[in-house]
Amino acid sequence: MKKAELILKNPRTEKLKTVSTGYSWSVLLFCFLVPLYHRNLKQSLLFLTLWLCTLGAASLILGFYYNRLYGRSLIKKGYKLFHIQGQISQKQLQKILPNNLG
Questions:
Q1: 3-state secondary structure at position 91
Q2: Is there a contact between 77 and 100 (Cβ–Cβ < 8 Å)?
Q3: pLDDT for 17-40, tens place per residue?
Q4: Is residue 97 a contact partner of residue 81, using CB atoms and an 8 Å limit?
Q5: What does the pLDDT read at residue 101?
Q6: Which residues contact 60 (CB under 8 A, 6 or more apart)?
Q7: What angle do CA 100, 36, 6 make, to 5 degrees?
Q8: Is residue 96 within 8 Å of 67, Cβ to Cβ?
Q9: Beta strands 16-20 and 80-85: pairing type?
Q10: Are 9 and 79 in contact (CB under 8 A)?
Q11: How far is the C-alpha of 102 from the C-alpha of 83, rounded, in Å?
């Protein structure tokens, strides 16, 4: 089954952002550079610290959580759920976007 993608929209700026569900392979490969690319300095510094302390092993675990963290950071910035591509269970959706289903 293909993993779902959530499209979030900022009501003020009309910008659209895509949040994937499932494991983040880019975090496995590039670890702290992924949040840096998304302009999230706090997460990038946290990931870098964990990556250095665990000699790179942290990226294996962080890949399971990054997409959820990214989705929640967009919600905090004011983005709202706009569209869902693919199939996702209500439970999975609630994990990524708690109290923001519309």
A1: helix
A2: no
A3: 999 998 999 999 999 999 999 999
A4: yes
A5: 54
A6: 28
A7: 30
A8: yes
A9: unpaired
A10: yes
A11: 9
Rounded to whole angstroms, the Cα distance separating 31 from 63 reads: 8
Calpha distance 11→79 (Å, rounded): 7
CB distance 39 to 54 below 8 Å: no
Number of H helices, E strands in the chain: 5, 3
Residue 56 amino acid letter:
G
Residue that has been written with the tokens 């494991």 in this structure: 23
Rg from Cα positions in the chain: 14
The amino acid that residue 77 corresponds to is K
Query: In the numeric block, which tokens belong to residue 70?
Result: 């990214």
Contact 4, 88 (CB under 8 A): yes
List of the chain residues with pLDDT < 70: 1-2, 100-102
CA distances from 52 to 10, 14, 25, 47, 66 (A): 34, 38, 19, 9, 17
